[in-house]
Amino acid sequence: MKTITPLVIALAFAACGDSDDDNTPLISGSVTGTYGDDTFTLRNGVLGKTSGGSDVVILGTDAMTCASPKAPAPPEGNFASIAVGVLAVGTYGGVLVQVYENHDDFSGAGSSTGTFTIDDLTDTTMSASVSFSATVDGKALALNGDFEVERCAN
User: Fold this and answer.
1) Number of Cβ within a 10 Å radius of residue 71
2) How large is the greatest C-alpha to C-alpha distance in the chain, in angstroms?
């Protein structure tokens, strides 16, 4: 397990939403996350590309759109990112999962111990599941559930 480096934290800022007026809810499913003592339900999400061109699933409690993976700063709320190494149906271990919170100040941590399964992938959506739990710097992290998200055109 590892603590998130400044570069990854900078990418995390770019991974979250950009406007409280925009929103892309999960098409279906239920995902719960844990960051320290806080447990939350992630109701919004997209599959998009970071500004560096990497595929990433962003799930959050607050508003997000297809612009979220490239946004310059995160909004309030709890978020999780899943680094998608291969965009193909299958099960992948050792996946980097990061969990964040932004309630007056930003913090996040993660580890490459997640299991990520893509059940279905079309030009417009992705159905998947994630299983992740870790303790990083004494902080409990978790992300678990099945979901379907919009696949952004970017």
Assistant:
1) 19
2) 40
Per DSSP, the residues of 32-84 read EEEETTEEEEE-EEEEEE-TTS-EEEEEESS---TTGGG-SS--SEEEEEEE-
Q: What is the dihedral of CA 54, 59, 61, 62, to 10 degrees?
A: 40
Adjacent-strand bridge partners of 86:
none
pTM of the entire predicted model: 0.82
pLDDT tens across 38-58, in order?
A: 999 999 999 999 888 899 999
Q: Is the pLDDT of residue 20 over 70?
A: no
- Phi/psi region, residue 29 (left: phi>0; alpha: psi -120 to 50; beta: rest), is left
CB atoms near residue 14 (< 10 Å): 17
